[in-house]
Design brief:
21% strand, 68 residues, alpha+beta, 1 helix
């Protein structure tokens, strides 16, 4: 029996600016309760950074050095 890939939304559920590529689990009261589909930029950021991104509608690329 073959399993078909689960379709994921095209946009990141955190920033809404980049394509979602990662399934992540975050538990932040008022923001995320479990599975979150995130882009490569949001996936590696700390919880406090994700809260800032959601609350202030920031681009997660701003949290990285220019050379990244």
């Amino acid at each position: 029996m073959s399993k078909e890939p689960i379709p994921i939304p095209t946009m990141c559920e955190v920033c809404g600016k980049h394509e979602a590529t990662t399934k992540d689990y975050r538990f932040m009261e008022g923001y995320f309760e479990g599975k979150v589909l995130s882009c490569k930029w949001c996936a590696n950021l700390a919880d406090y950074a994700l809260v800032d991104i959601v609350r202030d509608k920031l681009d997660p690329k701003d949290f990285y050095d220019e050379e990244d």
